Amino acid sequence: MARQAAKSHKSAEPPLGRNDWIEAAITLLAEDNVEALRVDTLAEKLGVTKGSFYWHFKGREDLLSGVLDAWRLRMTSEVRALIFDKSGTPWERLERLLRIAISGRADVPGGPFEMTLRDWARRDPKVADVVRAVDAERNAFAVQLYREAGLSEADALDYAEAHMAVVIGIRMTLAVNDREEIKRRRRIAGALLLPRDKANGEKP
């Protein structure tokens, strides 16, 4: 009897974690719009029943909130950690930021997933608030890097805004996930966004 109860308890445990569902949702949103995000669709892609979903989420809106939270963390705190956890000059950190942003991943700034979020934000004020907050934090981060590299406050503000526009534009127009094309576009972005001649005490 006890053995049967233990077996029953084991079978009731959720086979997937909360993050598994969130990552599956991010993958789907990188391929389609937010209206296509359905619990039954995700369950089918993951090869499980919808019951697994309700172990972790109250409903679809709860999942969408989890997706937004994950994106905000990934685009802010996690990027900061990747930049500052390694040694290097301010210019090397800016180059590292470009390498992270301009890549073949779907969840980078300007990538397919973010484009879905920005389209969603046009119709949902709560999502728009999150997108604006992430943009503001990313912009402040870029300003900090440019200031540390020796640019004036005015130049740092200008280049930080240009950084976001260039990176998002490059990713939006990167139709093919080709390694050589990604490298070429990083070089273009570097020529536009790494103005060493404007840094105090540094030569171009």
From TrEMBL:
Tell me which SUPFAM superfamilies the record gives. Homeodomain-like
UniProt superkingdom: Bacteria
InterPro entries cross-referenced by the UniProt entry: Homeodomain-like_sf, HTH-type_TetR-like_transc_reg, HTH_TetR
Keyword terms, alphabetized: DNA-binding
Q: Which GO terms describe its molecular function?
A: DNA-binding transcription factor activity; transcription cis-regulatory region binding
Query: Has UniProt tagged this entry with the keyword DNA-binding?
Result: yes
Note the PROSITE patterns from the entry: HTH_TETR_2 (PS50977)
Q: Which protein is depicted? A: Uncharacterized protein
Which classification does the entry list for the species? Bacteria, Pseudomonadati, Pseudomonadota, Alphaproteobacteria, Hyphomicrobiales
